[in-house]
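Slide 14.
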Amino acid sequence: MNYQYWVIRFVPDPARGEFTNIGLVCGKDGADWAVAFDTRHLRNHGGFSPDLRELSAWRTNFEGMFDCGVESAVSSHWIEHLRARQANLVQFAEPMPIGVDSASDGVSLLMPRLVTR
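Slide 15: predicted structure.
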């Protein structure tokens, strides 16, 4: 099946444009969605902790959209809206296609390749 994925980035200084990949969201409208994060041991030059606990409220809220049975609210349109609006510390990369059987398969395949420490 054709799914889409978005890389979730941490951008400590948007003016410089340097970023670290901290997560992935993968899914397909009318199908399943999955999200995963790895914020351990980040090297950043700002005043943030190495595990980005300062972003824990945002992360909890975002993951809650996937975990609490609110999947009808999760769509490619919603994620694209977030991508257009969030241009500060957390940003979403352009969506990319991936041919996998499920969203969780996509996240499992891509996490070790795109979100590395």
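Speaker note: The helical segments are 56-67, 76-85, 103-114.
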